[in-house]
């Protein structure tokens, strides 16, 4: 474990990174200054001041980030007030509900863009604006590799949605009402009303899906200011938080407090504990491994099993809880209140970007509604609700969210019904002659990091219609895909290695027997090594999908899920020199 954070020597105007651009007395600096003055700025507005990049993933194509345009202005106000020079740097947005084939394919592209924006421009510190699912890890990964003073401002959850007297949760209710419509329990008109009601304001999904999970994780890591992770996006408090980020980042530059000073092994342990206590998204397992990799911190899938075993789920938020949403979580005290309740499980000396320790930041936090944020003695679930499985079907691991599934499947053996691709599954799943019953195990392959590509969120396969009409609402499903953080059901995900690269999932046939045991954390197909080896003789590497372009880069360099799906050439902490100025 690392030492407690020790304050460094304060920066001076001459030791700022941007000094090489703006402070020097040479021909190049003349150009940098004169062309900055072209933007109607006086010399003293920017020379000798911390230059603060605001990496903004605002876009008209991203409904979760519509307010980030305005929030960038709030950040700028804070930066100016604190004596810095703010510059907004637009970056590619990853709009979870719109981008194809999946935003996950582009997470590493945004990470690269973030890192290189910061490296190639005279940036001294950065405020990262994002929140929609993969934007969060991408921004933090890029900033971590660049290692400047950094603060992440989460976009904040959207307001609670309402329809005919009931509340609607992003994602979770989307799946639920789709099944009701497939069953004929609601009309098309009613379904359209749900469609118009389920997302009523700017902001990220307001369940404890991937966006809220990653926002709370960033707060627990210390890269967001305390309390930032649950402020509803349209709340005036969110705009004030943005301005506070602007003020604080300027001071962080003078203090020379860099993001890797914050992202220590203790910080990642706190983040994993927070994931479990929130009953958070399975996607976070992949992202945390990737983020740790960028920070040079060891974090393996097995660490999650240890943390899960000792951490109760206290956030009673959908989909693991069945009533409340992020707005309720915020007014119940937000993450600081939850963290205080589990403080014995945390490293309280881990440092936050505000310069204080976790212990100092949560010392006055209170739970205002202990049905929303439960007490230790009355948890939603007594353990973390997420297990990593291994076995001959997943030699490098698979993930199961035990907190959001029918508990009768914790130990289950059944007959495999195999789909070769997502299209194959869609074509077959509602057929009356599909040879399936409620004890069958649905298997989907070719949906992993390369197979998808980008591991689309296909892991919550629909229940076959013939079983749905019999009242079946959950069954065991296994894939190398991910699932949305708002999803639920007995879905074994992230099977590694994936079928595309010849993992055992590629060799399974309909009719094989598969055994899942969440108690012993095992996932096996009941076939001998010899039988598997025999089948492997007939397996062929699938043909290339991309003749050129970014897709080809992904297919060549993406790592498997257990390694966080980072590109091999982006991993690690090997120092890269600042660009030469010529
Ligand atoms: Fe953007 Fe869920 S779709 S956070
Ligand atoms: Mg999602």
UniProtKB/TrEMBL annotation:
What positions does the domain Dihydroxy-acid/6-phosphogluconate dehydratase C-terminal occupy?
A: 371-565
List the keywords (alphabetical).
Iron, Iron-sulfur, Lyase, Metal-binding, Plasmid
Q: Name one GO molecular function term.
A: hydro-lyase activity
Q: Which Gene3D superfamilies match?
A: IlvD/EDD C-terminal domain-like
Keyword check for Iron: yes
InterPro entries reported in the protein's UniProt record: Dihydro-acid_dehy_C, DiOHA_6PGluconate_deHydtase_CS, ILV_EDD_C, ILV_EDD_N, IlvD/EDD_N, Sugar_Degrad_Dehydratases
Top-level taxon of the source organism: Bacteria
User: Start and end of every Dihydroxy-acid/6-phosphogluconate dehydratase N-terminal domain?
Assistant: 49-361
Pfam families referenced in this protein's UniProt entry, alphabetically: ILV_EDD_C (PF24877), ILVD_EDD_N (PF00920)
The text of the family note is: Belongs to the IlvD/Edd family.
**What NCBIfam families does this protein's entry cite?**
PRK06131.1, PRK13016.1, PRK13017.1
The protein's name: Dihydroxy-acid dehydratase
